[in-house]
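Structure tokens please, single chain.
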Amino acid sequence: MACGVDAIISTVRGRALYFRGLCKKYGWEVPAETPSNCITGFFVKRNGDILFEKMMEKGIYIMPGGTPGYFRVSHLGIQDEKSLAALAETIHQVELL
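Here you go.
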């Protein structure tokens, strides 16, 4: 069983891998060849111009990446697979508007 820093690194890595699986599910491109486990940058397919605003209206804060349609999700802090799945589903729903 991992303890201390090893446990934190393992938890963050698991979140990153899980979220990247969701990116693949929704067809979002993750452009980094070797992405950091701390953060995932990805391109949405549609409505990137309104995504940030629509997410804020829902009380969800997502980091714009400075390039149209590019966003970043941190894997540090308190989150679990359920919250990551809900986040991805919400992003996807904005894409469908």
